[in-house]
Amino acid sequence: MGENEKQANLTPEEVSRYARHLSLPEIGLKGQEQLKNSSVITIGTGGLGSPLLIYLAAAGIGRIGIVDFDLVEDSNLQRQIIHTTNSIGTEKTDSAKKHLLKINPYCQIDLFNEKLTKDNALNILNGYDIICDCSDNFPTRYLINDASTILSKPCVYGSIAGFEGQASVFNLTKESPNYRDLIPIPPPLELIPSCSEAGVMGILPGIIGTIQATETIKIITKIGNPLDGRLLTFNALKMSFKELTLRPNIENKKIHQLIDYDKYCSNTLPSNAKNKINFKIKSISTKDLKSLLNKQPDKISVIDVRHLAEHLKSSIPGSKLIPLHEIENGEALEKIQEIKNDYDIYFYCKTGNRSIRAIKYLEKFGINSINIEGGIEAWDQGK
Q: What is the pTM (predicted TM-score) of this model?
């Protein structure tokens, strides 16, 4: 494939290591040599990237690139199985490389300890045969998609949230759909909870990441039917898979340059739609809130809509915990109605997305409240 199509001979040690692959007629010696000659780059070394990288290394991928700029945190270890307790505080790329070389010392591991941006994406991704999208946010997904479209590189996609995940293969051929055929326009940012906000079942990324690894190996060895033009969805609670057909839109192939994706994902709604979203939402800065709490503490009720673990880690002093899911499923409605009778209500979360959702939901029941701008992050930073 590309620069890596020269013949690769397996050493006796590699023949022994990959014996179970060699026994498969669909893979055999030729397929294993293709794996050794191939190069794959993964963006993200978290929940999806962990199992993906582990299985790619075990399978004998010759060169693996890893792009990530985060440090390992204790909250990662519930699902990011490539890292260990001893890795906490270290760079994820370094932690991943050490683990992979313990599994397979015959792999070449390239590290890019930096954020993928419009300025470096084409240069970084161009050196690899296949791109694996293990990112966790919309700007990066659109960036990866557009770069893979421009470079004509297959992109193996995965995404998770809560108890559900999905996987597909984009840009496998000139006729293949890409990510923009799945999600043409980024959804409003305030409606998108992050992994830390929404939570995720620890085993879920292991399932989806392993599917991504499977698709990558199939593409390299040219076996089976890749998820080209198909979106595979998985529900862990129901233990069920569904498959949806994706059809390409020729307009989504007309990508010739990369853009500012953070700006793109925050400005895709028409101005009139944005006004509707924020029209009724009142807000207050954390600085003004602190002043108000000093002057009128008996007239204010501050409510945290995050999860218990987040609240215990850091919270606004005196605030009450009422998680967003208890508001949206109606469990907390009566409690909030009672609070409303005696206090002005101020909501906060991590950065403001969940608190806005709570406020919009409660407006349906005549409960008016105020959003604390920037959430606990702004409070802790003294903004």
A: 0.75
